[in-house]
UniProtKB/TrEMBL annotation:
Single GO biological process annotation from the record: tripeptide transmembrane transport
Similarity field: Belongs to the major facilitator superfamily. Proton-dependent oligopeptide transporter (POT/PTR) (TC 2.A.17) family.
Pfam families according to UniProt: PTR2
Keyword presence, Lipid metabolism: no
Record-annotated membrane-spanning stretches: 40-59, 65-86, 98-118, 124-146, 158-179, 185-205, 234-251, 257-275, 291-308, 336-357, 369-388, 400-418, 439-457, 469-489
Gene Ontology CC terms, in alphabetical order: plasma membrane
Listed GO MF terms: dipeptide transmembrane transporter activity; peptide:proton symporter activity; tripeptide transmembrane transporter activity
Topology in membrane: Multi-pass membrane protein
Tagged with keyword RNA-binding: no
Key words of the record: Cell membrane, Membrane, Transmembrane, Transmembrane helix, Transport
Protein known as: MFS transporter
Length: 501
């Protein structure tokens, strides 16, 4: 493994030629801890959010509205990753952008900790903005620590970094969730702010260990571009302020004046971005063919995330009201279910990595298309399993906690067949002109999936009860059919992919 390398095996003058972190550049420890604490704050708040929205001691909203708000929030986090990368590339550079992001996230959680309903949505917006800025850039900084793409430690470094993500995601619901549910909701949000503060502090203290490349603005804006961008930004900000001010003063403002436009943006932007890349005449025929193939993967991923992300909304709210959340008579907080996925990821990811290599050596590794089809079938199967606790609850009984865990387990296996593979195929199929932007495009699949969920659940638009047996069965069938369709057309997709395997 890459972490077995010592500092003596690193060429002098490259990042990591001094003290190491498990054989990796010392800066990896800084980024590992930053991401761990940021994920601690993010997943802790995410675990509490839907429960707080429906709780009588929280905002006491109906289930559909709570799912809409939580889905729009997640879609925004991933939507803002795209301008977050642009901001680092053109304005501040990755290092300063991450520092700014940490500060915004911390302020957002502190705002959520204020027990005033009116500022709650401001806090959500700040956390989404900060998360978008950070998500797009911290992985880039991990790459900067290594001596180019062929550095033998590179893949191992990203594996260690991935462990940091899941460590924070695992611990957050157990700590923040317990405090929020059992003590005080706003104290839980305050703990999320503390987590981000710790991450920001150690990031600032450890910046000296990062690569100097992280300070560079790759394509800085000219003075004229800055002036033009600022002018346009202020214009649209003023237009929005005037419009919403007029709506508010007229007494017609409701939450949907914000929710519906954000939902529509989350659906339109991914389509517009992919269409713009596909129509770019600067791409050669091979690149255009690959983009056409990528559309299949993007749509499949959007369907997957639409169902998968309901594990933190629809499923969590169901467990809160209709499940026996106890083990051997000991009751645990509902938010603890959100720790199931990260601990399973950490346990199963090495197994899957070994399995793909083992199958590859024997010439039997499934293609990327087949892996995506498998992910869709599995996430559909998870909602077929969801029908069992739903039927138990309809019979007037509490569903056993193990049914909920089983759903998360199947979704996790599905995630491992689709998410890492999707990241890999995105980098392989990206046209040279859009090499940096395509990772942001991949994140837009989450935006599209969650925006569609928000559209369906919003009482003013779809008004669908996502936790009812009929619609859960429909989602399960559609996911499985989508997986079968991807598998049936695998030959066509492979031809469009060309020499990418």
């Amino acid at each position: 493994m890459a972490s077995s390398l010592t500092k003596d095996s690193v060429r002098p003058g490259t990042p990591g030629s001094g003290k190491t972190f498990f054989g990796h550049p010392r800066g990896l420890a800084t980024l590992f801890m930053t991401e761990m604490w940021e994920r601690f704050s993010y997943y802790g708040m995410k675990a509490l959010l839907p429960l707080y929205l429906v709780a009588p001691t929280g905002l006491h909203l109906d289930n559909a509205t709570a799912i809409t708000i939580a889905s729009v929030y997640v879609s925004l986090v991933y939507l803002l990753a795209l301008p977050g990368g642009w901001f680092a590339d053109r304005v501040l550079g990755p290092r300063k952008t991450v520092a700014l992001a940490g500060l915004i996230i911390m302020l957002g959680h502190l705002t959520l900790a204020v027990p005033v309903a009116g500022v709650f949505y401001v806090g959500l917006a700040l956390v989404a903005l900060g998360s978008g800025l950070l998500k797009a850039n911290i992985s880039t900084m991990v790459g900067h620590l290594y001596d180019g793409p062929n550095d033998p430690r590179r893949d191992g470094g990203f594996t260690v970094f991935y462990v940091g993500i899941n460590t924070g995601a695992f611990a957050a619901p157990l700590i923040i969730g317990t405090v929020g549910e059992k003590v005080n909701w706003h104290l839980g949000f305050a703990l999320a702010a503390l987590g981000m503060a710790l991450g920001l502090a150690q990031f600032l203290l450890g910046t000296r260990h990062l690569s100097s490349r992280s300070d560079i603005v790759p394509t800085p804006m000219s003075a004229a571009e800055k002036t033009s961008t600022l002018r346009k930004g202020l214009f649209w900000l003023a237009a929005a302020a005037v419009f919403y001010g007029a709506v508010g003063l007229s007494g017609h403002f409701t939450l949907n004046w914000a929710m519906i436009p954000l939902t529509v943006i989350g659906l339109i932007v991914p389509i517009w971005v992919i269409a713009r890349i596909r129509r770019d005449k600067a791409l050669d025929s091979t690149e255009q063919s690959r983009v056409s193939a990528y559309v299949w993967f993007f749509v499949a991923a959007a369907v997957f995330w639409m169902i998968y992300d309901q594990g933190a909304t629809t499923l969590s709210i169901f467990a809160d009201s209709s499940a026996d959340n106890s083990v051997f008579g000991w009751e645990f907080p509902v938010s603890w279910y959100q720790s199931v996925n990260p601990v399973m990821i950490m346990a199963a990811a090495p197994v899957f990595a070994w399995l793909w290599l083992w199958l590859n050596r024997r010439g039997k590794e499934p293609s990327t298309v087949v892996k995506f089809a498998s992910g869709l079938v599995l996430v559909g199967a998870s909602f077929f399993v969801f029908l069992i606790p739903l039927s138990i609850a309809d019979g007037g009984h509490k569903a056993a906690a193990l049914w909920i865990v089983a759903i998360y387990f199947i979704q996790t296996i599905g995630e491992l067949t689709l998410s890492p593979v999707g990241l890999s195929v995105t980098t392989k199929m990206a046209p040279a002109k859009y090499a940096s932007q395509m990772m942001g495009v991949w994140f837009l699949a989450v935006t599209a999936g969650d925006s569609f969920t928000a559209l369906l659940s919003n009482p003013a638009v779809g008004g669908v009860n996502l936790d009812k047996m009929g619609f859960v069965a429909l989602e399960a069938v559609l996911a499985v059919l989508a997986g079968v369709a991807v598998w049936m057309y695998r030959g066509k997709v492979k031809r469009l992919m060309g020499d990418v395997h």
